[in-house]
TrEMBL record:
GO MF annotation: an example: kinase activity
Protein name: histidine kinase
Residue ranges of domain Histidine kinase in the record: 180-393
Catalyzed reactions: ATP + protein L-histidine = ADP + protein N-phospho-L-histidine
PROSITE patterns the UniProt entry points to: HIS_KIN
Keywords noted in UniProt: Kinase, Phosphoprotein, Transferase, Two-component regulatory system
EC number of the protein: 2.7.13.3
Amino acid sequence: MKRTKASDLAAVARISAVPSILQVVAETTGLRFAAVARVTQDSWTACAVLDQINFGLAVGGDLEVATTLCHEIQSSHRPIVISKVSEDCTYANHHTPRLYGFESYISAPVFRSDGSFFGTLCALDPEPRDLSDPKILAMMESFCRLLAIQLEAEERFVSTEAALLDAQETAEVREQFIALLGHDLRNPLFSITAGAQLLLRRATEPRVEGIASNILMSGHRALRLVEDVLDLARGRLGNGIPLNLSRIENLEHTLLHVVSEVQSANADRRFTTDIQVPIAVRCDPDRIAQLLSNLLANAASHGDVQAPIEVRVGIKEERLLIAVANQGEPIAPEKLSLLFQPYWRPSDDGSKRGLGLGLFIVGEIARSHGAEIRVSSSAEHGTTFTFDMPLEALEA
């Protein structure tokens, strides 16, 4: 098929993992502008953008290619990493940082399977950022390989039409995606967080302690993002999120611990609990805990800060019911069916926290348990999410 600017933009737009990739890059590096760019000899085009600094470049926007560092990457086929432009012997007097006003920058090339150059995955920030850890560049290059795989899959999809796409081939591409996330991203992030923990234990200066603490928080945040994207990929394979089932005698204790953890992270919010599970329940306790945690985080983000978040758990008519309720602006009826779609947020949501995967994962956990997840919302009664699982649904 003939490749054009429009077809390349459309191909990147169809790759559902791209927003997650940009978010993880930003969270891991601290760089607040990230993009996937299509680069040719005479053009630089933004195919996907995460802009937290009002850089002013939207999807489809063009730059003069000769003014960019990506132009140099196209020629050299080598990545560029700059922690602090003003102290970099190569780029301190370069025209590109002066023109676009950045102090830190990282970019890696994206190659198609036939070896041709597609463009770059790049990120920058007006402030300096320490990008010297080789694991950061390794993560960027892993993402570039993932983008190349997904681009090839999208182009094959278009050329052969959706109805004729081989299901096994698609599953293999998604499995490669899971493998890349699981190994090439989680391992470097584990190393980063372990190093930050060691530095935090040995820090004697408040400034060093603060930096180590921020690195640790960012590392844990990036790990949570990767886990969410892994769950997204598993869910979209069609088999749902995998479960580790067992008969749990103390599910009540597990759920109370989850409430305590979320309350610690939201000290300004009040939680009320009525959790009674007097019998053993066959389920995956870690996934049920994840479901409750996501529902509580959603209530804390969108509920009225003056009203308590209510948690009700019990057994009724051979069913396990978990309900999380909060007061606040009701959800419009036409939006209720959209809540469990990945990456979806209300258009007026200004928080922009996370990837918008929390409720999608809640829905997938419920589906894997043979359960139903319901939501009701009104000005009078507030918003309530209810997990409803027949106790016999997962019996061996």
